[in-house]
C-alpha cells in the first residue's frame, strides 16, 4: 500500500462511504489490500450510478418547474393585459361621465 506523508491511510471511512475492512488473503490468493481496493472501487462505482440517477431525477424536476414557471409567466402577462384593458375602459367611462356632466352643467344654470 502507498505510504503518505501523514502515514498509512487505513481509514475505514472516506467521505462518509464505508470502505470494507481488510481481510486475510482470499481464495484467489490476492493481496488483501488489493481486494479491499477492488471492493472500494465497486462501491464507488455504485455510488456514482446512484448519483447519476439522482441527477437525472433532479433534472426532470427542474425541467418541470421551468415549464410551470413559463406557464405562470404567460398567465401573468395575460392578466396584466386584462388589467390594463379594464383600466382603459374605466378611464374612458370616467371621461364620458365628465363630458356628460359638462354638457348638463349649462342646462342646470
Could you walk me through the main structural features you see in this protein, from its secondary elements to its overall organization?
- The chain has 109 residues and is mainly α.
- It has one domain.
- Helices cover 71% and strands 7% of the residues.
- It has one helix and four strands.
- The strands form two sheets. A two-stranded antiparallel sheet has the order 1-2. Strands 3-4 form a two-stranded antiparallel sheet.
- Strand 1 and strand 2 form a beta hairpin.
- The N terminus is likely disordered.
Any idea how many domains? 1
> What best-fitting shape do the alpha-carbon axes yield?
rod-shaped
Report, as a whole number of angstroms, the end-to-end distance.
111 Å
How much strand? 5-15%
Given helix and strand content, the structural type is mainly alpha
Global Rg: 37 Å
Question: How many strands, what sense, and barrel or not for the largest sheet?
Answer: 2 strands, antiparallel
Strand segment tally? 4
User: What's the mean pLDDT score?
Assistant: 84
Which stretches are poorly predicted, pLDDT < 50 over at least 5 residues?
A: 1-11
Q: Enumerate the strands of the largest sheet in spatial order, edge to edge or round the barrel.
A: 1-2
- The proportion of residues forming helix, as a percent range, comes to over 70%
Put simply, the count of helices is 1
- Can you write the helix and strand succession as a string? EEEEH
